[in-house]
Amino acid sequence: MAIPVRNVYYLLSYAWRQFEYDDVVDLESVESNEIVDLFARILIDGTRQLVRRGLDRGYRTESKKIAGVRGQIEFGPSINEMLFQQGKARCRVDELTHDVLHNRLLKATFQHLRRVRDLDDDLRAEIAGVLPYLRGVEDLKRLSPLLFHRVRLHRNNRFYRFLLDVCELVARNLLVSEETGEARFRDFLRDEVQMNMLFEKFVRNFYDREHDGFRSTSSHLKWNASGDDKALSRLPQMKTDITLEGTDRVVIIDTKYYQKTLQSGWQGGVEKVHSGNLYQLYAYLNTYKVHRAAGRIVEGMLLYPTIDHELRLDYEIDGFRVQVCTVDLAREWREIESELLDIVSVESVIRKFAQATNTER
User: Which residues of 266-283 are buried (b: 16+ CB within 10 A; e: fewer)?
Assistant: First the structure.
């Protein structure tokens, strides 16, 4: 499945809850389907917007030789350099500067992207035009994903958040040759671990934003277990990917991102639903019903991206409605939205029972 770069942008926007850039990033200008081109486009357009707003600045403490006294005097160095006799002093002063960590990370990401061999040449030229805006920002020796966790943003500079999330994704997937310095961007869309996390966050936040009938959360469930404290402490955490809670319905969704939707079956060669996924969902449904249902109908769903099969399987298992569905992330975005809303709608339940009734007749 080849996910269009436009759809990757929307996946990231929902997963990170960042929607401020919809009118900033010119997705129409991304002609290729290379992820690295999409990220370059986001960072270029976003940085230009930052420049129009004014690049963020912060205070940095520096040791300076100045006339008079300002800040905190460094007596030892001032005496050693005989500065007092000259009416000067070495002081530690706080200077307002653009040379802050989030600007350094932005600049370093641009410098690394320029070396990616698959980057569109026009985008490479645009990066060269953006870098002068960051002239006063120090170069980072290494673009490490760990550095992003040291950035502290607030309400006045929150516009950096999406850009830094993109920068971190670049840092985690950029492979740089030590011999040539040339960089290659790893296709994270084929990385099941990264995409599983992204897909889960996207679906949860999509329903939270787009479906008024449900509150979308990730629920911590309590095991219906007894034992001594030591034994109970060894139980694994039971946490749903997504729990859609409504006034009369609860839909527990377990998302998985696999390169192969179904698992091979030895019984007649028929491919099967992943058994571990179904067992896990069944445990969630039973536990939720015991502890938290409060009279509401509890349903379950396994949701996968469409890879090699489009699935709309509907079961009743021990009184629970259980769906196994796929969503085609390669389709037009409006179709994806409609598909996600439809599979959890009341109308889909009505259709199921209507079909069952017709079959019985």
Answer: eeeeeeebbeebbebbee
- Domain containing 66: what range? 59-97
Q: How many domains does the chain fold into?
A: 3
- Identity of the residue numbered 281: L
Contact 31, 56 (CB under 8 A): no
What are the contacts of 278-283 at 24+ separation with CB within 8 A?
278/302, 278/322, 280/254, 281/252, 281/254, 281/322, 282/317, 282/318, 282/320, 282/322, 283/238
β pairing state of 249-255 and 297-305:
parallel
- 158 backbone dihedrals φ, ψ, rounded to 5°: -65, -15
Do 86 and 109 lie in one domain? The reply is: no
What is the per-residue pLDDT across 4-61, written as a single tens digit (0 to 9) for each? 999 999 999 999 999 888 888 998 888 888 899 999 999 999 999 999 999 999 888 7
Residues 129 and 212 in one domain: no
CB atoms within 10 A of CB 298: 20
pLDDT tens track for 167-212: 999 999 988 877 777 788 888 888 889 999 999 999 999 999 999 9
Place of tokens 């000067």: 88
Terminal-residue alpha carbon distance, the chain: 40
CB 253 within 8 A of CB 280: no
